[in-house]
């Protein structure tokens, strides 16, 4: 019995001896670091040329080895207890701030990163860990081109990873007080030698490890409040956020990319409480949006809208402009802005809902409302043109639902009530619609492209606000009058003054009329043939040239139109639209129909196109010598079949060719909305439930 007890005691003593040796070695290495500051007189020797990096490496290895030897998981060994109780991290942070010897901050950042990453025991809950972490964060990330950017981004990577694993750590890391008073700053500046001397006096080679109960009681008192307030009541700055934002601006591509990934990791925390804290008690959203606005305001006012529209391939992961594209003034600034906008959009997509909504609202308020809106409404045409082009390219890049919602509210407003014809433009949307019909053709085209981009976004309110709210209830159908049995009953093309027989003497042999389009099954709807022909007949046969080049009719556009129709159908499917219009109520009183300002603008522009090209087409044709041959030559030039040469009436001739193709496109779009059941086009059937 006594022999067994003796063996157990011997095993116990043998098990503790390595711990004592580890602590002695750990203290010895720390003592070697502090002695350097007492004994060294050379202030110019870089830290990496001293024994400090080696001693820090030995201390790290001892901590990791000690933890692996612990019998029970979660226990703190003597060396870790010593590091915590003697505030070693606090002292190292102060030494790093003093940057003595030169390069010491780099060594401290590396040591912090490795300790937090390699020691598995939770450390950031301890006051003597997260307080120096906060101080160390405040030392970097604010000065562009810092020599320690690489170490800083590695440090933030570890912290963001720890927060992702345990969102409760967010309050410990983000809670950071501003320095209060100059006395505190003065005390910190003289701390290195004072703390080093205190360590030399207290440390002994065989000092016992601190009592574990002491550390437990001390750690239990380190719980932090959700907010830390300054004497004036303001919320303290969060240095992790400001450090990350600063590193995101780094000229070193890999540093900037890693910092953006770290911030993305931070905002995607799963905890509701952590996300709320991030929004309410940190400068996360304001800092991200402030940088976005700064980049926008740094854009040169002379940017060419064509260059803005042509710049593609900008991503937050690769914010620089592609090298194969042509250079233009302001290209790098534009690429930087679009790259950060894409990053904001990605942040909003991946972030927790609380952060996502707050960040989207901040972008809308600070960029859209405060900066873009005054430019869109400015009297300067250049300001309107540039801001419209920039907004269009932003819409093209935008993917996040939350930011799309804010952009739609900004552009179209929240009121979806139908407008009246006499309403004056009070909203931004009304002004933009008026810009579509501006005296400046450049502004008109730029604004039409903006609406084209907007209509391609998957948001029901866009279509409803611009179009559907004016069509609900079918006020465009006259009450009490039967619909015509045939569309031809409402047209009398033979009496149209523009389609005269006098043109037949011009020498232009009329081509065969286009083959009739297959009609749909009789179900009370207007036959698709009549709808298609109504577009094809807008241009007289005598002014058409496509048949002379063995081109077919409108069916050359049918495949593209059908793909576009399927894309639109897929986009609106989730909105639950009815498959057929509701029946008219015969007792409902008839009300005046107004198509709305957007459709009115489009119809007005299209009607003017017809007036300016078709209105006097037949008369102008007869005044152009050798019109058939010249028209055919212009078509070949536009198709690249023959080299271009200047001709008389060239603009008019080009307009005739373009008008013919435009009408064929309209006919193809009308046709695919009522796809035939015959196999001649080999078109796949649209998905069930699409409108």
UniProtKB/TrEMBL annotation:
It holds the Pfam family KELAA. This is FHF complex subunit HOOK interacting protein 2B. Residues 197-209 have a biased composition (Basic and acidic residues). Residues 184-234 are annotated as: Disordered. SUPFAM superfamilies: ARM repeat. It comes from the Eukaryota. InterPro entries: ARM-type_fold, FHIP, FHIP_KELAA_motif.
């Amino acid at each position: 019995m006594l022999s067994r007890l003796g063996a157990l005691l011997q095993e116990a003593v043998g098990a503790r001896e390595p711990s004592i040796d580890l602590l002695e070695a750990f203290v010895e290495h720390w003592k070697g670091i502090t002695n350097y500051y007492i004994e060294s007189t050379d202030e110019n020797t870089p830290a990496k040329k001293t024994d400090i990096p080696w001693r820090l490496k030995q201390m790290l290895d001892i901590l990791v080895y000690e933890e692996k030897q612990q019998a029970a998981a979660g226990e703190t060994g003597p060396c870790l207890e010593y590091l915590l109780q003697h505030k070693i991290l606090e002292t190292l942070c102060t030494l790093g701030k003093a940057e003595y010897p030169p390069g010491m901050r780099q060594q401290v950042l590396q040591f912090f990163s490795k300790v937090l990453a390699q020691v598995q025991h939770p450390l950031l809950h301890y006051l003597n860990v997260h307080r120096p972490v906060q101080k160390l964060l405040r030392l970097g990330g604010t000065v562009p081109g810092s020599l320690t950017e690489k170490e800083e981004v590695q440090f933030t990577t570890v912290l963001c990873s720890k927060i992702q694993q345990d969102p409760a750590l967010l309050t410990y890391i983000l809670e950071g007080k501003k320095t209060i008073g100059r006395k505190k700053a003065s005390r910190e500046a003289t701390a290195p030698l004072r703390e080093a001397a205190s360590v030399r006096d207290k440390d002994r080679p065989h000092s016992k490890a601190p009592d574990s109960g002491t550390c437990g009681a001390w750690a239990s008192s380190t719980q932090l409040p959700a907010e830390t307030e300054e004497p004036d009541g303001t919320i303290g700055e969060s240095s992790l956020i400001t450090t990350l934002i600063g590193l995101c601006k780094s000229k070193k591509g890999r540093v900037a990319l890693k910092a953006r990934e770290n911030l993305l990791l931070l905002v995607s925390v799963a905890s509701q409480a952590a996300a709320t804290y991030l929004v309410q008690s940190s400068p996360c959203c304001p800092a991200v949006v402030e940088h976005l606005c700064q980049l926008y305001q740094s854009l040169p006012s002379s940017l060419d809208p064509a260059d803005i529209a042509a710049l593609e391939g900008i991503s937050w992961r690769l914010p620089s402009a592609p090298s194969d594209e042509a250079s233009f003034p302001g290209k790098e600034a534009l690429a930087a802005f679009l790259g950060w906008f894409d990053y904001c959009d990605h942040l909003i997509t991946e972030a927790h809902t609380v952060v996502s909504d707050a960040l989207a609202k901040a972008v809308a308020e600070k960029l859209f409302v405060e900066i873009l809106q005054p430019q869109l409404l400015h009297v300067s045409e250049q300001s309107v043109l540039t801001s419209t082009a920039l907004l269009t390219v932003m819409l093209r890049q935008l993917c996040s639902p939350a930011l799309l919602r804010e952009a739609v509210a900004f552009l179209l407003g929240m009121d979806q009530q139908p407008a009246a014809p006499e309403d004056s433009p009070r909203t931004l949307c009304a002004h933009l619609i008026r810009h579509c019909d501006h005296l400046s053709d450049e502004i008109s085209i730029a604004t039409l492209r903006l609406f084209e981009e907007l209509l391609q976004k998957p948001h029901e309110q866009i279509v409803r606000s611009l179009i559907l709210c004016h069509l609900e209830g079918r006020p465009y159908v006259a009450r009490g009058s039967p619909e015509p049995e045939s569309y031809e009953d409402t047209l009398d093309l033979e009496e149209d003054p523009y389609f005269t027989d006098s043109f037949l003497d011009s020498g232009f042999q009329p081509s065969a009329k286009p083959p009739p389009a297959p009609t749909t099954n009789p179900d009370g709807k207007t036959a698709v043939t009549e709808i298609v022909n109504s577009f094809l007949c807008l241009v007289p046969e005598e002014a058409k040239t496509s048949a002379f080049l063995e081109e077919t009719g409108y069916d050359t556009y049918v495949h593209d139109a059908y793909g576009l129709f399927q894309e639109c159908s897929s986009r609106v499917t989730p909105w639950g639209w009815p498959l057929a219009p509701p029946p008219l109520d015969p007792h409902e009183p008839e009300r005046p129909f107004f198509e709305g300002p957007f459709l009115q603008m489009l119809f007005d522009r299209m009607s003017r196109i017809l007036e300016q090209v078709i209105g006097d087409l037949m008369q102008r044709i007869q005044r152009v010598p050798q019109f058939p041959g010249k028209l055919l030559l212009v078509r070949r030039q536009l198709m690249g079949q023959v080299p271009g040469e200047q001709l008389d009436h060239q603009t008019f001739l080009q307009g005739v060719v373009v008008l013919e193709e435009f009408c064929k496109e309209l006919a193809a779009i009308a046709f695919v909305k009522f796809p035939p059941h015959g196999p001649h086009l080999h078109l796949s059937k649209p998905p069930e439930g699409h409108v």
